Amino acid sequence: MSANLIASLRLQCGGPRDGALLRFSLGSALLADGDAGAAIDELRRAVGFDPAYSAAWKLLGKACLAHGDEAAAAEAWRSGIAAATHRGDKQAEKEMGVFLRRLEKPRR
């Protein structure tokens, strides 16, 4: 199912419907399919289309973390917190703040 969804979404890239939502959807599908590297690429494109898209920043952080890049995850969440704060998206701001604190928490 996810392979069909991914293929369908990829067909729309570069067309008239290409944008933040399409790239977010593709990134989400790729991450769910286990391809964190490709998900990162698409989610970066999503925030390129709309830098205020806090959900895309949040998922980009998760994809970076799944890919093993904690520094990039923290950077994505910091950018996402700034975007969410600017838009007044308190829930996304809180969630990314929690993710960031957990990531930065000293490990025993």
Sum up the structure in keywords:
108 residues, mainly alpha, Serine Threonine Protein Phosphatase 5, Tetratricopeptide repeat, 78% helix, 0% strand
- Total helical elements: 6
Number of domains: 1
How far apart the termini lie comes to 41 Å
Rg from Cα? 14 Å
Strand content: under 5%
Instruction: Name the poorly predicted regions.
Output: none
CATH overall fold name: Serine Threonine Protein Phosphatase 5, Tetratricopeptide repeat
Helix content estimate: over 70%
Count the strands?
0
Structural class, from secondary structure content?
mainly alpha
CATH architecture: Alpha Horseshoe
* Helix and strand pattern: HHHHHH
> Could you say which overall geometry the principal axes of the C-alpha atoms support?
globular
According to CATH, the homologous superfamily is Tetratricopeptide repeat domain
CATH class, named: Mainly Alpha
Q: Major beta sheet, specifics?
A: none
